[in-house]
Amino acid sequence: MARVPLIPEDHGPLAALIAKLKGARGGKLINLYRVLLNSPSVAEAWQAFNNAIRFNTALDDEARELAILRVSQLNGADYQFQIHATKYAPACGITPEQIAALDSGENSSLFQPAHRALLAYTRAMTVDIDVSDAVFARLKQHYNDQQIVELTVLIGAYNMHTRVGRALRLDPDPS
Hints:
With 175 residues, the protein is mostly helical. It folds into 2 domains: 12-55, no CATH class; 61-167, AhpD-like, CATH 1.20.1290.10. It contains 9 helices and no strands. The model has no long low-confidence stretch (mean pLDDT 95).
């Protein structure tokens, strides 16, 4: 159970913002935004930033989802992991076998070399914080500067995203 109230969809004073959030989420107000609506300005800024880092970058969908899944897994963030593993990852071609292999993904033949480098970078940023020159050089072989910046911000944002979800104990959204 979430540690702060889930704001209901019919909360009149926030109707315009709720409509905006739902519009950006395919008509659904997910629990994350229901919690964030306890601070309307944070909810609105979060949605704008999240959309920018997920959908307005040069990263391909598969790379984006692999990074999000790995951050979620490393941080024990079941809320985000389940959403992305069941909805977004399959939609961009990530297989159940690849999802199951994320623990060893940076060395697994189930992933192409670029994605193995991305998974190593994601682990280093999330677990070690300081990324070694070797891990960065491996990433640089596959991604340009713009993509590296976008990937770095995505990983950092999802570290925040998953930690907020865990701290506030977000429950999975109903199907």
